[in-house]
Predict the structure of Cytochrome P450 2J6.
Amino acid sequence: SLLLFAVVLLLTAEYLRARRPRSFPPGPWAFPLVGNMFSLDPGNVHGDMTELAEKYGKVYSLKMGPSWTVVLNGLSALQEGLTKGDHLNDRPEFPIHSDVLPDLGIIFSNGHMWKQQRRFALFTLKHFGVGKKSLEFSILDEFMYVSKEITNHKGKPFNPHLLMNNAVSNIICSLVFGHRFEYGNEKFLKMMKLFDKGSQIEASIWAQLYNAFPVLMRRVPGPHHALQKIYREIMDLIQTEVNQHKEDWNPSEPRDFIDCYLSEIQKRRDKSDDDADAGFNEDNLVMCGFDLFGAGSHTTSVTLRWALLYMTKYPEIQEKVQAEIDGVIGRSRQPSMRDCADLPYTDAVIHEVQRMGNVVPLSLPHVTNRDIQLGGYTIPKGVTVIPNLTSVMFDKNEWETPGTFNPGHFLNQEGKFVKRAAFLPFSAGKRLCPGENLARMELFLFFTCFMQRFSFSTPPGVEPVLKARFGVTLSPHPFEICATPHKG
Ligand code: HEM
């Protein structure tokens, strides 16, 4: 009977804990212990979260394991939450990361250090945005290698996954390391494999359970424990590059992010800058490099794959893009960012690929840094907040045909490109993706280069599958395409 009493006591305590705090946003009934964790379809979490807003309103709450989470839906709730004030600038702790990685870098850091590291990364990205060693140059150069690989397939079906990964990872390599790798390079292949493995584990239920029940999961065997080794190996690879840079570093001619960062460390040391909290040291350099790869490669590569897939699905749209490029750029030169304004249809297609591809459907989680008022509710300090980007990018009140691929969403009556406030693939506010400009540049240049040189189609008799796979990002299921020279 003592056991029974203990069980009843435990269940009562858990029942009380599972009750929503007063004046907290409403939401579905939460089960004891697991809350709503298993009520969402693991293959369609963003879709389920968007649907729940119809029932509970634009700001509602869920219990994920033992912790309360608030989900923001629709443009005005996201703007109210993310762009007014600094109460949602922080990231919550993710035990699966914080147990393994140092509390440094940009993505998962907070406060003064986050602000300084983020500002520095933005500044450096801008620095390499123009000029002789510019990222535009690196992208066009990289396309030549991609083009060669595609041509080698001689119109036969191939899976573009690895090639897109290689191409965009090489752009981050150019930015961070100052050079690209041959696709067969051993070190490059190793790094790509490690990032792939890492993101597979991060997308698994093991990682979710770890974040919800860290004390328990630290003791439970499973693939989540492999993450430590994977991340350590990636950090070591980046550290090797840093060591090589130190050997032939010329502060007056910064070649890349590592050189700029080394200068910043020295500048602060020479000025006896005692702002140690800003965190400019070698460990942070490695971690920032890790973050730029982690956030910048997979997202862009997946978007490019979506672009190719949509072009095979809508050959008439592909032809229209090609006709526009033929008319404005022709064949005798490569595209440049300056062409963007003269290619409104192409630009609209890229934007529509990003909207429909919805690659980061729930952005990254934020956390309240004090008690806040949002959507008429009080949300206490320390509550995780999810900006549901899907709810904005597929909102039937914002888009004419939200569920259909329609470049017209970004064109006016005269066929000119128009910006849309509800286009939020990079999120909004102070945590807005700092790689937005680079990503836009990569998407525009790679895509126009593809369309200028090739026509893409599915292998005979194969229908493109547009249903997404939910993981670290929303990505297409593996697919094959055929590429033939664009005749024009
Ligand atoms: C954060 C989207 C490419 C670096 C983010 C966030 C989103 C996003 C939604 C979370 C914002 C938030 O917390 O609310 C994308 C998409 C991309 C892309 C859709 C490509 C199509 C890139 C690239 C880089 C990059 C190319 C770097 C070179 C980062 C970093 C963060 C971030 C460092 C963390 C920012 C912070 O916590 O302050 N990105 N991103 N991203 N992204 Fe991107």
The two ends are 83 Å apart (CA to CA).
